[in-house]
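=== Discrete structure encoding ===
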Amino acid sequence: MPISGSLAPCPNSPNCVSSQEPDTDHYIEPLIYSGSHTGAQGRLRTIVERQPRMRIVTDKDGYFHIEVTSRIFGFIDDLEFQFDYALQCIHVRSASRTGYWDLGVNRKRIETIRTHFLQSS
């Protein structure tokens, strides 16, 4: 769960991206939406539910926590979405629980979701 409205910071390792990180190595743009936050949450939930190996662990108060299981080794990554209703954006964080390098998997995961999210609006 986010700490005081913010997602957890990324570790120093290159296996995490977040829209709330100040440094360019970890930073990724938040998702932007128009219209109601309820509609945006529904669209995002549908997209996540259709992705393979993703399981929603927490879905409440404008916050989603998803566990993502890797296809080959079964490692679990954490994917988080925090809605900012005032700015009509969704802050994102995707991070590996183990290891150091992720070969860009977390960044690619967010960009894939972003593509689906934009296509569904």
The mean pLDDT is 94. The radius of gyration is 13 Å. The chain has two helices and six strands.
